[in-house]
Amino acid sequence: MIDRKDNHIDADINQGLEDIYLVSPRPDFLPGLGSILTLKAKEKIGEDNKKNFFPRTSRKPLFALVSFVLVVILFTLFTSPGQTFAQQILHFFYPTNDQTHPVATASLSNDESTRLAIQAAKLAESCPQNELEERYLCEVSFAESNIGFSVFAIQPEEFGLFFSSMDFDVDRKIVNLYYGYHGYEGTDRSIWIAQGIGEFPTRISAIGEDDWGRVPTQSIETVAVNGQTAEFVVGQWALASGETQYTWSTQIPGMTLRWHDGDHWFQLSKGGQPEMVTNMNKEDLIRIAESIHPSFED
Amino acid sequence: MENIFKAARLNASTSEDADLAKVVHSDESAFAEIYSRYSLRIYRYVYNRVGDMAGAEDLTSQVFLDALEHIDNYRPNGSFAAWLFTIARRRSVDYFRHSHPNQSLEDDQVSINPDVLEQIIKKEERTRLIKIIQSLDNDDQELLRLRYAAGLSFLDIAAVLNRTPASVKMAFYRLIEKIKQIMEDSND
Prior knowledge:
The complex is a heterodimer.
Chain A: H1 11-21, H2 29-51, H3 60-78, H4 80-90, E1 94-96, E2 100-102, H5 110-126, H6 132-147, E3 152-153, E4 161-169, E5 174-181, E6 191-197, E7 214-216, E8 220-225, E9 228-234, E10 236-238, E11 245-249, E12 255-261, E13 264-270, H7 282-291, E14 293-294
Parallel strand pairs in A: 1-7
Antiparallel strand pairs in A: 2-11, 3-14, 4-5, 5-6, 6-13, 8-9, 9-12, 10-11, 12-13
Helix pairs in contact in A: 3-4
Chain B: H1 12-23, H2 28-50, H3 53-69, H4 80-99, H5 114-121, H6 124-135, H7 138-149, H8 154-161, H9 165-187
């Protein structure tokens, strides 16, 4: 029996399809063919050995690779541009010494607004809105088929969360997934997973604010997500009443984690609603981060 | 909502397949191991395409002979299953061209072994399901074959069909939804 792992497919249909497709051959056919083919394989090995007087593998590519790695290491360690480069690629946030942040004046252009609105309408049209489980799967699949890379997601129930919504930006290749807490009404965007390919963009959110990745240097803590270096920050930019600039505040317990996995970048954020304070800490956030995986099945 | 998403890590057997393919040149047991892993799945897939046992046996032999002959063409960074089922798919198309020159692939329908059909027919649901499958177009039938008969992952199906994994997955779930809907409609 094939491990179908399609728990969300109607069990009867799944079983019916398996009954129909999993036919058996004559009992003696496959073993008989196997013996013949193994003999053929043996003959082929004999022929290949006659043809190949020299070993098939060459050490040249390995030597070239080792040389290249050595050059990169020397460049990184002993040259100023190399050190700058290393600093850039090792940081996931953009460190700053500023404690204030200007209120964004940029807003979405009409074209961009229209494009995102059309995208959102297509998403709503393509995916069922009644069944949460189906909608989650469908929306992630829809984003994947439009954006061209595998979207990583979590099983929210494991963490007492529920899938709330998602949006994505085809042009900037960014997908945002939002989750809320069971039992807390109005927390639909308490947990936010943003992801994309390549380096971290300066603007992640699709709603016009920018540069939230720029955080005070002293707030950045290096942690590990599945053994990979990651950066963790507590605090967020807050706009006090009557102020014209954001001020960095650690009193608002928002937490953000950034890391790379392969060619993917990820940002996992927890909103700072007061009722969430006791519910989640750094370790909890890292646990969620470590559970993020591609939506494709084996 | 448990288990909606599954990790797509390369599982052990996938990387083992690549390792086995690399040593087929020097170790006949490697090919025997590949054969034991895939022969039944290949058989099921081609049987569901051609619909008769003799044809399926012939095709299964040809697929593995092709694989043995052209193992140098396999690139270990790709999925071995996808490579093998691409051969099976091509061979099945050739089979139809040569054995059934007047039958177009677009017209073919899922073939069910009469013996199996007899067992299945006892259940009304299964009978209706077979009819629904037979009414599907060839692309949809192929998707079900690759998923159920061949037991391929979405990633491997995408490689065989030269499509993106996301579009394959979306098409698959839409197809299941469509089947479910037809079954529900016929209940009314």
